[in-house]
Amino acid sequence: MKYKKLPGKLFTIGYSGFDIQTFVDTINDCNINVIMDVRSSPYSSHFPEYNADNLKNLVSNKKNWKQGIAYYVPMKESFGARQTNPAYFSKEKFLDFEKFQKSKQFLAGCTQVLNGLSQGYNIVLLCAEREPSHCHRAVLITRWFDVHGYAVTHILPGTLKVQSDVDEELLQKYLNKNYMKNMQSGSLLALDKSPEEIRKEDIEKAYRKQNREIGFRQTEEE
Question: What's the CA gap between 77 and 94, in Å, rounded?
Fold first, then answer.
């Protein structure tokens, strides 16, 4: 995919893979200056250093940041996984990511991100889960950005992933398909569809299956 070019870059990170100093160092190494918190409840009993108040204090200390400044932006209304409006839920009573992606609040959040990137800010979407493919930040949020032509980099301890890596992980998990291998062998050939069309449809199926697995359910407590 050919991605649209913007002055700023979009990242995600799951803090459970980082102690707080490594987190700060990683944010600085990537020249990130905006931390957007996409948790519905920005608190953690296991990682209290990542509670919203502590993050605000961390960000407000200019000495922590290579560029001398950083911003903390709560995004739970636009991007939080625990939505409550029944209009966005499936018949099985889990949050339907495709429905929520069309909501005014989600699209407002996307516009806010794109405005920041257009102004040259490097933005990271912060959540708890280490692996992006297990987290709504990639299955819901950056899936939208990728489909609409915006590149995303997922930060993990000691490595980076892009959205196509998440695609491949979900394809292998749910459809047992390794597209890199199959494309090379020519085993994706079909009479009525191109390999790219087959892959696109299978990616959509895999994301829906992961949505079903990780989507917030109305029977769960906040």
Answer: 17
The total of other beta-carbon atoms located within 10 Å of residue 16's CB is: 16
Q: Report the 3 state secondary structure along 124-173.
A: EEEECCCCHHHCHHHHHHHHHHHHCCCCCEEEECCEEEEHHHHHHHHHHH
Burial, 30: exposed, middle or buried (Cβ in 10 Å; 0-12, 13-18, 19+)? middle
Task: Give, as one character, the DSSP assignment of residue 81.
Answer: S
- Residue span of the structural domain in which 111 resides: 10-163
H or E segment and range at residue 37:
strand 34-37
Q: For the segment 113-161, what is each residue's pLDDT rounded down to a tens digit?
A: 999 999 999 999 999 999 999 999 999 999 999 999 999 999 999 999 9
**Residue 77, domain member (yes or no):** yes
Say if 213 falls within a structural domain: no
Q: How many domains does the chain contain in total?
A: 1
